[in-house]
Amino acid sequence: MGPVTYIGLDIGLSSPCAVAFIRGDRAEVREIKPKTRTKDENVRIGEIIDGITEFICATCVNGDGVVAAYEQPFGKLNMRTFGALSRIAGGFIAACRIRGIKQVEAINIQKIKMTFEGHGSADKEMMVRAAMLRYPTMGFDPDKANKQQHMADALGVAFTLREMEEGLGCSA
What we know:
Layout: E1 5-10, E2 17-23, E3 26-32, H1 41-59, E4 66-71, H2 79-98, E5 103-107, H3 109-116, H4 124-134, H5 145-165
Parallel strand pairs: 1-4, 4-5
Antiparallel strand pairs: 1-2, 2-3
Helix pairs in contact: 1-2, 3-5, 4-5
């Protein structure tokens, strides 16, 4: 069996989601946005889940040797926002299961930031800088942190999952 593939999801509703995978030395990340400009939250969530599913299906032929994680919704969220983010996480889990990925984890954001950047309260510029240092050929630029933060966070989720699986992750 080849190297393990680690998939990470950064969940967003009003801003884009991002999905990343790391396999050996190779990494890829994709921003997932709703395809239409509708204000209907159910349609937006469905389009985001469709994009996540497309990425996972393109990345994984089957679930053998694949583990996945998503950024656990946290903080002072109102019930509507928490419900929407939970539906996206549920869509991610369902897409993983369809592809035969049996292990899907939720990881606390502070653990992700600590493991990926080295500081549990890293801001978006710090996360983008960590992505740039760890994956220099992917075009990350701290001056574009507003546009790249979700992609850096998704890489951070996949990276943290890899470190946890290999027994190298920081405890948070």
